[in-house]
Design goal:
Pathway: Protein modification; protein glycosylation. With 431 residues, the chain is an alpha/beta fold. It has twelve helices and 15 strands. Helix 6 packs across helix 11.
């Protein structure tokens, strides 16, 4: 157990004592922490900065999942899946506060479990028997900055006021996925400059709690591409959408886009036995485009085309790919979408409009997934500049076996010339 506490600016920070064990995690300028025997299995929880969107959070899952994978090489750990809620793009007013949404709403948990052990947060609370988390580590940067890349992590004074405060009973309270009754027993700020899997020694040797929570886990990065490409793709392939959402997307494809898996050569198998080459998939007889508007009109104004220019660019793909249907995934308001449709004469334009029942059950996140699933099966896809929504579609198409020429395309800004309009980097799947 930790033997002492030091107070920094109102935060209780975990202190440390020297130990001779060379296997204990060594911080860059502090002695290692004491540790004792932990109960089994242990649980790893995590969260992401509130401002991060749905598709970036999916990427963070992969980082943490691969950390759990390497932890399980030595002792059993279970990843607790953080409930979804209140993301920027989830703005459908009639749904109210979209919080406490389990992962099973969006993803196939049995598929995830073929990679690592996972459990929903509410199931974790049932297993533990009370609303408690052992230790929370609030990840932050180094106050002094850095002039070179090197892996390191230290228990430090909190740079900014953290989201956790200690109550009169010594319990740490914070935004634990909007579960007000949940508390933590210990809390510390940790400055970290590290690959995700490099947290393993710290978690195994320097923590004693049955459950450990890493907040702002986006601070932990993937390993070097050359070393971790296959590991990334293994975790990514396990992230299959829920059967229900795939069925809704497939029904839309069949009804409106003359598309089904058998004709399109996109049939799924158990991902652990599924390997596709580029060009194996044909795709449905339609073009799909991710037409990002709203915040992108300001955040990336130079890279966002006018509606007229976007339509002009899309028409260039129709003849080479022999398609006369276009599916649009967009956050554009209705008036902009209808204006876009008017730019086409013979081409049929479609977008997915959820029923009230679908929207209430699967929320805005489910509707976004249906859009991505339909885009992933198109004969050709055209995305949006540096959008994680677009990136996730690229990955789905890599998994399904589409050619890279039909996948890695993006709309150019109306003011970009050919040299400025760099197309997306092609990232080949690894097995």
């Amino acid at each position: 157990m930790f033997t002492s506490l030091v107070i920094f600016s109102g935060c209780y920070m975990i202190s440390a004592e020297d130990m001779a064990d060379k296997d204990v995690f060594q911080t860059s300028n502090q002695p290692p922490l004491q540790f004792g025997q932990a109960k089994e299995p242990r649980y790893l929880l995590y969260d992401v900065n509130p401002g991060e969107g749905f598709n970036l959070r999916r990427d963070v899952y992969i980082r943490v999942a691969n950390l759990v994978k390497v932890l399980n090489e030595d002792e059993p750990w279970i990843l607790v899946l953080p409930p979804w809620g209140r993301l920027y793009h989830w703005q459908t007013r009639e749904l109210g506060a979209q919080i406490k949404i389990p992962w099973s709403t969006f993803f196939d948990l049995e598929s995830l479990r073929k990679h690592i052990p996972v459990i929903e947060f509410e199931d974790y609370l049932k297993v533990i028997g009370k609303p408690v988390i052992g230790e929370v580590y609030y990840l932050q940067s180094y106050k002094e900055g850095w002039d070179k890349w090197e892996e390191k992590m230290d228990i430090r004074e909190c740079i900014d006021k953290p989201r956790y405060q200690q109550d009169e009973n010594g319990k740490w309270r914070g935004p634990f996925f909007y579960y007000d009754e949940v508390y933590a027993e210990k809390f510390a700020c940790m400055s970290a400059q590290s690959y995700a899997v490099s947290m393993k020694p710290f978690l195994m040797k320097n923590t004693t709690a049955r459950s450990v929570f890493l907040d702002r886990a986006e601070a932990l990065i993937h390993g070097m591409f050359s070393e971790w490409s296959a590991e990334y793709w293994t975790a990514r392939r396990s992230m299959r959408f829920s059967r229900e959402l795939r069925d809704i997307g497939d029904a839309f494809r069949e009804k409106y886009l003359r598309s089904n898996d058998k004709k399109d050569r996109t049939e799924l198998k158990d991902w652990t036995n599924m390997k596709r080459k580029h060009g194996d998939a044909l795709g449905g007889p339609y073009l799909a485009v991710h037409l990002r508007r709203k915040d992108y009109l300001h955040a990336h104004s130079k890279q966002v085309p006018t509606l007229k220019n976007a339509a002009k660019q899309i028409k260039k793909f129709l003849i080479p790919y022999d398609v006369q249907r276009v599916f649009v995934a967009t956050d554009a308001p209705d008036e902009e979408f209808f204006e876009f449709v008017q730019k086409f004469k013979k081409t049929k334009i479609y977008r997915f409009e959820p029923t009230k029942e679908i929207l209430e059950k699967y929320k805005d996140g489910g509707v976004a997934i249906i859009d991505q699933w339909i885009c992933a099966h198109a004969r050709v896809f055209v995305g949006t500049y540096v959008s994680t929504f677009t990136f996730r579609i690229h990955e789905e198409r890599e998994i399904l076996g589409f050619s890279q020429e039909s996948t890695y395309n993006r709309l150019c800004g109306s003011e970009e010339d050919d040299k400025e309009c760099e197309q997306p980097t092609k990232w080949s799947i690894s097995y």
